[in-house]
Amino acid sequence: MECRRRTRPIESDGPSVRRSTGGTVIGSEGSDGVKEGTTDTLSGSGTLVWWSWQPCVTMTTGLVMAVVLAVAQAWCVNAIHENLLWFSQLTEVEREISFRTECGLYYSYYKQMLQAPSFQEGLLELIHDNLTESRRTINLLQRMNIYQEVFLSALYRSLPIKTYLEPVYFYIYTVFSLQAVYVIALYLTAWLLSGSWLAGALAGVWYILNRVDTTRVEFTISLRENWSLPFLALQVAAITCYLRPQLTSLQQKVMVWLMYVTTFCFCLTWQFNQFILLVQALIIYSLDCVDVLTTSQVTTLYLVQVSGLLSVWLLQFCNSMILGSLVLSFIVAALFVRHCQADLKAGGLLVRLSKILLHSVLVFLLTFIINYLTKKALQVRSDEHIFKFIKSKFAFRPTRDFDASLYLCEEAFGLLPLDTLERLADTLLLYPYVPTLLLLSGMLGMAALKNLSRSEGGSAEEKNAAAEAEAFRPDVAYNLLHTLLYGLVAFSTMRMKYIWTGHMCALAAHGVCSAELWTLLLRALRCNSRILLRIVRYAVPLLIIALLYFKFWPKLMNELSELREFYDPDTVELMTWISTKTPKQAVFAGSMQLLAGIKLCTGRVLTNHPHYEDKELRDRTRQVYQVYARRSPEEVHELLRAAGADYVVLENSICYERRHRRGCRLRDLLDLANGHIMDGPGENDPDLGPAEHARFCEAVQTDGAAYAALFTRTFQNKTFHVYRLKKKRRKTPRSPSESAAAP
Asked: CB of 204 within 8 A of CB of 66?
């Protein structure tokens, strides 16, 4: 079959666009690449008819499909969670143990709020908490992002659902419902970018099928990212809509408020919000430099971020970590330097590039100055471990810093495994994503160069004609840089891939259904016609969805039918013993992960916990972990007593750890920090020396005299050993008469 060019040229095959002086696209396309506001009629040439009722049918169909996919995702993760643990048949203590590591800590505050005599008393207990950290009274609402637990507890108290819905199910159903919100947000983003609800459907299908790489909510329910990422996706959808052309003044105001609300919810639910928003601020800054966004849009987006962060700062009782964040310093610096450098967007290409370089140097220099002075003035040290981790990660040399090593040795904070790309390719997601990324990057690069080289001279008609030719949709540009920068973050740190892979589905779906991209391809093949464009735009996504259905539907059904069961009798035995055999005010020391479970299951006081954003807590954790180092019993006893511990729980899985390689086991990190050589065969740094004492967690189990004098074993099973700390007997000084009588 030969595709021939029409003898009568078509005036406009793609979307009709106009551009403002700031470079913003004013016009936009409809769902089929036709300029909005026009109506095609059926003629003898076979042009497609668009009756007045068809947009309503299209909108209704798209929204219904969004709801169907959202419900499907929520149902899938709930079914997998139930099948993985047989959650409905577990006892209460087993259900609580299933909230592993920091998830148990966060859920414990929801449980604590429900057990309080009233909501007000529960809130006061959180504000003046002395159970989470022994010998310290802390404001949990200031320290941690647990407003979602407070809100859910208030909602559960007020709704008439207590008779038929247990608190734990209300909690997990809420989190799974947020997955539905996530799918809807991605669906809307893809729909807004491409103008076709088929793109949204394809994005939703890809998100569900790539569940291993897009979410881990089914086994880390309470993790902060599972609360926050749906709001981040909603914020991206709101930004995409805000940057679309031809919005009325009222629509723009609505979008600004939506951006603020979603940014606020995102920041309120995750302590790492400042680092995510910093990347977003860099995206806005980059688009501002190349004239893709107007000054008004840039200022609005910056102020939305600042407003969201400051609102959270107020709710978190003036948390200094927020004021000391890099993103706030960067936004202040960017706005100030741009105000002072008024002629930034004047001149030719070389002049503009040199000005952008100077502008960027000034912005980043001022950012670090403001951030340094702010942290010094407010004495902010809460997030310094994160910067230690980043510095050590990209220094390409080993570090002995204990806090940085804890992160570096965890797989979640390592580089993105290559098998992730294999799984993404297996679902056909990677194949359209990469060409879309390359093509849009090239188009944005060309548009940026033309924007920067645009001469100040010339008539108004020439400027408008040039601007129309060089226009690049700002909503597409934002989403392109969003996926590029967060993709780089994901490749550097695997845990951050959940920000990237979800948005990856939306951008790939846009590439499959985009009228602009298909128009370019058909032009290159000399097959450019409106009918063929519509056929390809609708046929290709439907074909991909059909292929995915036949390939993955049986696998999905098998996965949903696979039944497993929670089984951890040793931990259940430990929690039962603590609840029944120890005083309610007893203080327990141990690993951060285990203590979070002890807090949830027993309500006992802790010495340390997994929420690591506090300098004093990090120091205390390092001291408590000396039970796994080579230290004398007297030193360990003194350190534990200083933390207020009455009991210490030792875990064989840590003392005899084999999960990590040599140099990354917890005992190795402690040995390196203490200047001791590591266990096992292998090289050691020349400045390390042998320890004077045996490893405490091993030696204390021998019940030697020195250990038995300070520690009493009170519980043990195959996994755990619990020791009660004895009080040191003080030697009473002799009286003068006794001293004289002594020979």
From this structure: yes
